UniProtKB/TrEMBL annotation:
<feature type="active site" description="Nucleophile">
    <location>
        <position position="16"/>
    </location>
</feature>
<feature type="domain" description="DSBA-like thioredoxin">
    <location>
        <begin position="8"/>
        <end position="208"/>
    </location>
</feature>
<comment type="similarity">
    <text>Belongs to the GST superfamily. Kappa family.</text>
</comment>
<dbReference type="InterPro" id="IPR051924">
    <property type="entry name" value="GST_Kappa/NadH"/>
</dbReference>
<dbReference type="Pfam" id="PF01323">
    <property type="entry name" value="DSBA"/>
</dbReference>
<keyword id="KW-0808">Transferase</keyword>
<dbReference type="InterPro" id="IPR014440">
    <property type="entry name" value="HCCAis_GSTk"/>
</dbReference>
<dbReference type="GO" id="GO:0006749">
    <property type="term" value="P:glutathione metabolic process"/>
</dbReference>
<dbReference type="GO" id="GO:0004364">
    <property type="term" value="F:glutathione transferase activity"/>
</dbReference>
<dbReference type="GO" id="GO:0005777">
    <property type="term" value="C:peroxisome"/>
</dbReference>
<dbReference type="GO" id="GO:0004602">
    <property type="term" value="F:glutathione peroxidase activity"/>
</dbReference>
<dbReference type="InterPro" id="IPR044088">
    <property type="entry name" value="GSTK"/>
</dbReference>
<dbReference type="InterPro" id="IPR036249">
    <property type="entry name" value="Thioredoxin-like_sf"/>
</dbReference>
<protein>
    <recommendedName>
        <fullName>Glutathione S-transferase kappa 1</fullName>
        <ecNumber>2.5.1.18</ecNumber>
    </recommendedName>
</protein>
<dbReference type="GO" id="GO:0005739">
    <property type="term" value="C:mitochondrion"/>
</dbReference>
<dbReference type="InterPro" id="IPR001853">
    <property type="entry name" value="DSBA-like_thioredoxin_dom"/>
</dbReference>
């Protein structure tokens, strides 16, 4: 982080709608608050497995609440999440591993594209309700985010490389080290101490703790 600025890390996976909400709010506030926002693409499946966490919607009443909650949050934050009853099944049956490796490869080579690319993956999965695991959909997302066909091809080839796989695994392990058990996991670094905030509804508290 620059002198006097608070480093705030956002660990996220595009399968998570609450991660999208947290991402958009922090992307807006990085221009208002005195923070350096660092986007950290990670793998939610790995975090759930390592901590023994279960998808909250497996509890029927909680699933019903989450659907309403997502609709309210989307309206309030003006993020175009289209939530419906089949979402929990869609989340459970979709793999974003390839997408998160693609974003990771981008972060390693062309980090300036990470923000628009992540946003386009969420738009495709949560607004257009499409599968983001297919290479042709990954290519379409990359094109919309402004990546050239040559760069997209290079990044697609990198997805299966040990370097990219290891980076994604290491980032996921870093989130776990900070105490993450789900996503989004927001970590603010204050006076050499990491402070973990879980979810997209703790950002007022984050602001208060960093003096904003």
């Amino acid at each position: 982080a620059e002198m006097g600025r608070t480093l705030v890390e956002l660990f996220y996976d595009v399968v998570s709608p609450y991660s999208w909400l947290g991402f958009e709010v922090l992307c807006r506030y990085q221009h208002v608050w005195d923070i350096d926002l660092r986007l950290r693409p990670a793998f939610l499946g790995g975090i759930m497995h390592a901590t023994g966490n279960k998808p909250p919607a497996l509890l029927r009443k909680r699933g019903e609440y989450m659907l309403k909650d997502m609709q309210r949050m989307a309206k309030y934050y003006q993020v175009p999440i289209i939530a419906s009853e089949d979402d929990m099944q869609r989340m459970l049956s979709s793999s974003t591993l390839g997408a998160m490796r693609f974003i990771t490869a981008t972060d390693m080579t062309q980090p300036r594209y990470v923000e628009p690319l992540s946003r386009e993956f969420w738009l495709r999965f949560w607004s257009q309700r499409e599968d983001v695991s297919q290479p042709e959909n990954i290519m379409a997302v990359a094109k919309k985010a402004g990546l050239s066909p040559e760069l997209t091809q290079k990044l697609l080839e990198m997805i299966s490389s040990p370097a990219v796989k290891n980076r994604l695994r290491e980032t996921t392990e870093e989130a776990l080290k900070y105490g993450a058990f789900g996503m989004p996991a927001v970590v603010a670094h204050l006076n050499g101490e990491p402070h973990l905030f879980f979810g997209s509804d703790r950002l007022e508290l984050l602001g208060s703790i960093i003096g904003e």
